[in-house]
Design a protein that fits this description.
By secondary structure, the chain is α/β, with parallel strands linked by helices. It folds into two domains: 181 residues, Rossmann fold (3-Layer(aba) Sandwich); 113 residues, no CATH class. The chain contains nine helices and 14 strands.
């Protein structure tokens, strides 16, 4: 890095505008609420209130993934950094960059770290986090990218040797077809010397899984219903959020937790911005999120089918979570 006493102003590339995000929301909501079963993408949980609720979820006793992954990083980040031998950390879905410091510190200790590239859909969030990290790590070049990883992976700055980190188990929110497309697209973006660090939640007993998504304090239920508050505010909908029950369940066949909202009685919802009326029967459910759970061998096979070769895996002490380092095969 450059001299430690000199902060380098961060750069910001914006590939998604407010108009793009609005158009995507309108398209996603129209498509999702006119499909069978009805569904909404989980990205719309995360307004300011939703982000605060999710932050609260990560501190709940039932919600193990954040603690488990953090534990792995704290123990193994030095080994990860040495194996990757990267001078650039690219963090996909960086958000507020909360987990970043453990990896940045480990990479800095190798003497190679020069650049950090946080990638997220929210330009406002990523710009604020980039500024904080640029000040916290003087001499580190921070080049933030606001984009959609379904469309803008190719806009991530090249050069150097890059470690792409996709943590938090977020890859599990993609269905199998979406995961294959994402990993295949990512494989085309990575250069031969680059590496992928992937965090994944693992299959475990049904009780532990369901408790993590249905906590006793009801925080996850409020987080689930928050998507309806977002649609009311952003699209002029008239959902009554408390008329929908939080209904998580474990899908054994697909190895995934599914979060649903179940209508408590018949509902008729008007979405003014879309000129759309949506009818819910009593007990009808709306899918708001999936969270796929993996096995170590199954993940290795899935990575291989998308052009990656596994290099190393780190398992949480309790076997709850896995972090995998892989490289492009070419």
């Amino acid at each position: 890095m450059a001299p430690r006493d000199r902060a380098v102003p961060p750069a910001l590339d914006v590939h998604v505008t407010a108009d793009d995000l609005r158009a995507a929301m309108e398209r996603d909501v129209r498509d999702g609420l006119t499909s069978t079963p009805k569904s909404l993408p989980p990205v719309y949980f995360y307004d300011d209130r939703g982000s605060q609720l999710f932050d609260a979820i990560t501190r709940l006793p039932e919600y193990y993934p954040t603690r488990a992954e953090r534990g792995i990083l704290e123990i193994a980040a030095k080994e990860m950094a040495e194996l990757a031998a990267a001078d650039t950390l690219v963090e996909l879905g960086a958000g507020t960059c909360e987990k970043t410091r453990v990896l940045l510190d480990a990479m800095a200790a190798t003497g190679h770290l020069a650049r950090y590239v946080p990638f997220d859909v929210s330009a406002t969030t990523i710009q604020r986090a980039a500024g904080e990290l640029a000040n916290e790590y003087p001499g580190l070049r921070v080049h933030a990218v606001a984009g959609d990883f379904h469309r803008h992976l190719g806009r991530i700055p090249g050069g150097g040797r890059r470690l792409f980190a996709f943590l938090g188990g977020t890859v599990g929110n993609l269905d199998p077809d979406q995961r294959r497309r994402f990993l295949a697209d990512l494989d085309t973006v990575l250069d031969p010397g680059d590496r992928l660090l992937l965090g994944t939640d693992l299959v475990k007993d049904r009780g532990t899984l369901l408790a993590a998504y249905d906590d006793a304090a009801g925080v996850t239920a409020e987080f689930n219903r928050n998507v309806l508050h977002v649609l009311n505010r952003e699209l002029g909908a008239d959902f009554v959020p408390d008329a929908f029950a939080h209904a998580p369940r474990w899908n054994e066949g697909d190895h995934r937790i599914e979060m649903w909202l179940r209508a408590d009685g018949p509902q008729r919802v008007r979405i003014a911005a879309l000129d759309l009326e949506v009818v819910f029967d009593d007990g009808e459910e709306l899918l708001t999120e999936i969270s796929t759970k993996f096995t170590a061998d199954g993940l290795a096979d899935e990575l291989a089918s998308c052009g990656f070769e596994l290099e190393e895996q780190w398992l949480a002490d309790d076997g709850a979570f896995l972090v995998t380092l892989s490289r492009p095969l070419r």
